[in-house]
Amino acid sequence: MSVTDRVSRALEPRMARARRVLGAPARTARTTVVIGRLLGTAFVVCFLTGLYSHLLQEPLPGMRFPPWPGLYAFTQGLHVTVGVAIFPLLLGKLWTVYPRLLLWPPLGSARQVLERASVALLVSTALLEPAIGLVNTYQWYPWPFPFRQTHYALAWVIVGSIALHVAVKLPIIVRYWSRRSAAEDRSVTDD
Question: How far apart are CA 147 and CA 150, in angstroms?
């Protein structure tokens, strides 16, 4: 028996026990979908308001925006407010899914490798983007990169990662989108 097989055989029951211990009634696919829906909406709002700000500051050739008094202040206020609201939503979403990190074996197929890599990219950028945005509200820049350009580039990475994540998880999202489908599913599993 190889070392890998022995390690895998030793870790598999421990990981299963950890998943059972971490299990909670609130950690359901329905909860994950509802929080994900709110989180996705928050990221889209931040993306659109940030894109508006970016295009005002660096318009494309030939692009002109009419001067609407107060619109920029409103969109930036919305951008910052929703950006701050992302923190509890993101932590809630991560709380509902983190026992899945303990699946064994962690990478079984090429599809799982790609899915885990895309989730790692999504989570890391989703944590970094609002964090540097919040630090920017204090006009404190402890990093060596330019804030505006980096914040803008990360926004595109997040939107792409969210689109990929939704595409991969679409069957689960569709199944648990409505309250009725979740209740039907629960009644089937309880029998």
Answer: 5
> 77: how many CB neighbours lie within 10 A of its CB?
12
If you write DSSP's letter for every residue of 19-42 in order, what string do you get? HHHH--TT-SHHHHHHHHHHHHHH
Ramachandran area for residue 158 (φ above 0: left; ψ -120 to 50: alpha; else beta): alpha
pTM above 0.90, yes or no: no
pLDDT digits (tens, 9 = 90+) for 164-190: 999 988 888 888 888 766 555 543 333
In degrees and rounded to multiples of 5, residue 83 shows phi and psi of -60, -40
The low-confidence residues of the chain, meaning pLDDT below 50, are: 186-191
> What type of residue sits at position 10?
A
Domains and CATH numbers, the chain: 24-190 (1.20.950)
